[in-house]
UniProtKB/TrEMBL annotation:
The lineage of its organism: Bacteria, Bacillati, Bacillota, Clostridia, Halanaerobiales. It comes from the Bacteria. Residues 23-270 form the EAL domain. This is Diguanylate cyclase (GGDEF)-like protein. It comes from Halanaerobacter jeridensis. It is found in: Cell membrane.
Amino acid sequence: AKKMDDKDYLYYNQNMKNKMKKKKEIEDKLRNALNNDKFKLKYQPQVDLTDGQAKYFEALIRLKEDNISPGEFIPVAEESGLIIEIGRWVTKEAIEQLAIHEDNEIKISINFSVQQLNDKEYIDFLVEELNKNNVNPELLEIEITESVLIEKEAEAIEFLNQLSQLGVQLALDDFGTGYSSFSYLAYISFDKVKLDKFIIDRFLEGQNLKTIANLIKLFHSIDLPVVAEGVETKEQYINLAEMNCDYIQGYLFSKPLANNKIKKLLQENLIQ
Ligand code: C2E
Ligand code: CA
Ligand code: CA
Ligand code: CA
């Protein structure tokens, strides 16, 4: 192999410096957003294939006045520890939104990062917010990925079981991207599983159709409703409907929406 010469080192150093500078900039943005109310949530409907209704929404965080995506800033929030405060903000905001829509009984799911397990008072905080806003815990759902369980298995299981006992719903997110093990299903009573866009795109054609169909059957056999994520085409929708997939979340029906768009959507049938 070629050895690194001075020029390479210089380049390498410069590259590292740029990356660290970028990270620092994002961290500053996140601190600023926490202090100045510059986060917002967008809500993407999960359309029920039996009736075309959207009563379930995934809350997805955004920065106001800035196009930086959560795919870019959430990892920085996780590394810096800011995710704890951000996670609380998301929780509070979602619960307040549930309170606003109490007559419509919508459900909102929020994403939860493994680093938030370090927030030892999170559950107390959650319960307090639910009580303060008079919101039924069953209307709130927490989405976690398998990585949470792999990184901190014992802690995660205890945490999730506590949530479950409170009545908070649990969704297994991004199924099909990691190990996609079924072993966790024995320890945690999930209420829903979300098939990642990755497997929707790779497997929803030709011979592979059977794989998804059987996966959905398997989840149904243990009473787990299935959400297909990242559905963009009519063909995918038709295939998933034939397989009795329960919910579809994707641009085909709706992008993530501002909160003031929820009400109107509740009156629509999205599959007509
Ligand atoms: P995720 O949890 O898998 O969320 C689904 C992502 O897929 C969202 O991206 C959503 O906008 C996008 N999406 C939905 N339908 C389609 C589609 O039809 N086509 C395509 N191409 N994309 C679609 P988003 O909002 O950019 O979020 C990216 C990731 O950032 C999320 O992935 C989640 O891991 C993380 N994230 C977002 N909000 C939060 C949050 O409040 N807390 C935490 N911890 N993570 C969050
Ligand atoms: Ca999610
Ligand atoms: Ca997902
Ligand atoms: Ca994903």
